[in-house]
């Protein structure tokens, strides 16, 4: 990475010259309701890596990404980004794009695209702005109250990515992109890691166009990091396409998810002591003062 171009500006400039490596050591995390979100997660992702974060719904991917982004307070000494604690340092060069960012209401108002892009630094980074407009095939004459979901998402991605980042944490926000837009976007992200040594962690359930893209895989299950490693570790399993039409990467991920389901059992049969109500039926929830069937029926009306 060209260190002098680094956007990481930790307090006192501590991270300014450091490569954007991600280091997680023995990270466990409890939500305010006392339930365990993550347990003993450890991983090391080098600068310039592109990691696919894989796991069933509820596996803990968002929880981990939010902790990495510094949006949640992790136990001390458990997370280092470019050698710095992201929560206390409030790193400039770490960008997290997740659901709350997607739901920002401003992108549904009658506002012009150039105004929006400039409001997030477009005029300070005109080359990046123009490149993103081209890559994401954005029409500058769009008004945001009158665009499709996919068009809106493309503008949002441009907004989120204009400011140079060294670490990008992407939480499944490319679902609305058509195949070509997603392919172009992924190629651009790859270029960012190769040109600038930026580091990406991408949580996704959609594997289209991803064969050959990740440098690392990380597999989460029930708040644990079940396995992770560089792609070389999975080469034998992922190096070409299968007759089923899935890529071998897709087959590997499907296998992981089936094993996870088998290990966990159907949701309504889990007896998870960590969370009141989890693994219960509607009937049994009545005893917890939660949803009974009648209550649910009322709400449905
Ligand atoms: N604020 C919270 N308080 C308590 N439990 C939570 C909270 N946020 C998430 N959880 C629980 O933590 C678990 C992990 O959630 P998380 O959002 O990290 O999963 P995920 O892997 O990102 O899932 P998905 O693929 O559906 O986005 C889930 O069982 C969820 O219900």
TrEMBL record:
Chain spans, region Disordered: 265-301
GO biological process terms on file: regulation of transcription by RNA polymerase II
Swiss-Prot/TrEMBL keywords: ATP-binding, Nucleotide-binding
Transmembrane segments: none
GO cellular component, one term: CCR4-NOT complex
An example Gene Ontology molecular-function term: ATP binding
Pfam families found in the cross-reference section: ABC_tran
Protein name, as recorded: ATPase
Lineage, highest ranks first: Eukaryota, Fungi, Dikarya, Ascomycota, Pezizomycotina
